[in-house]
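Attaching the record inline, Q. Sequence:
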Amino acid sequence: MRILVQKYGGTSVMGLERMRLVLARVQKAHVEGYKLVVALSAMSGVTNRLLAQAREFSANPDPAELDVLVTTGEQASVALFSMLAKDAGLRARSLLGFQIPITTNSNFSRARIMDIDTVRVKAMLEDHDVLVVAGFQGVDCHGRLTTLGRGGSDTTGVALAAALEAEVCEIYTDVNGVYTTDPNLCSNARKLDRISYDEMLELSSQGAKVLQIRSVELAKKFNVPVRVRSTFTDDPGTLVTLEDTEMEDVLVSGIAYDKDQCRITVRNVMDRPGVAASIFAPIAEAGILVDMIIQNTGRDGRTDMTFTISRANLDKTLAILEHLRPVIGCEDIQHDIHVCKVSVIGVGMRSHSGVASTMFTLLKKENINILMIATSEIKITCLIEEKYVELAVRTLHDAFGLSEGPAKACP
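Structure, as predicted:
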């Protein structure tokens, strides 16, 4: 049995005409001999409307009940598309997360997939041409509905492809693939034909919105080829796959940026063992992700601790730090929401030097001050003032020649 998994995002299923475009792709794959598992998102805007409605009824909605509510968006999508597919002569059936089941932990609103019952899915594929699965959702061991977090339908698609050993997972969206940077910010951004899992992970973690980061983690772990393409064109898109020698010759693959950043500085904390743990352990326990961290050189038994978080977590983080004041003995807690991360990413950086110095020199020439720096094997990230983000991205994109072709490493 040849199995193909396709995932369609909210803009792809927004109304009858767009669902007909999805149907045409499904029919084409069916004619080519595939059994299809199609994961659908809620129609664009539906999840946000449901969340807004929940907050009209409750100032602090219960996370478990919120998951019950927001899963109805995907439920509507799969039911409507299944009707359309059946009318077109396909043997189709809609499936919700709990009907498969897609079993998750009980971390409501950001649950993680623990297991997928592939025996049942494969049995149903014997009698159907296409199974239309609600993305973004699952069920915990207590029978309660869960959701996988924003962009969770990507994770649903990749997880199904991994579990079913599908040939590929096709992620359909409203863009033609993965670009060297955001085309809305840089008009000469170039679509990539291929990109490695590691590069895609870095792009996703540094602000690129094409794929949810957990879906890329799953794809890498289980070696699932992922093709990102547009529902609305015949462009072949971008293949996310294993790194090869040709990819290693490319010095820089893309420039990413993330405006959802806030810098917090805890000033004059006690410079002694355990203080960093006292600060970051409670933040982690609250489910808040900390990104960049710097600790200044201590002086007179005191030091400053600076780190970044997403803006949505600012109030919660400040409340935690205020509670910790007596423990860490800080003088002041400062924050700045007018900051942005800009990252240069490429697997070629593993074995070639000079990218960091080039990046820093380019920013200096534009009088852009670097507030913080973080690096990995294939990424260099600078925190800068938000007002300079467009200038920084365009400058770096042009300097590394990304609009003309891959930035090749020097021999």
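The chain is about 35% helix and 25% strand. Confidence is low (pLDDT under 50) at residues 407-411.

More tomorrow.
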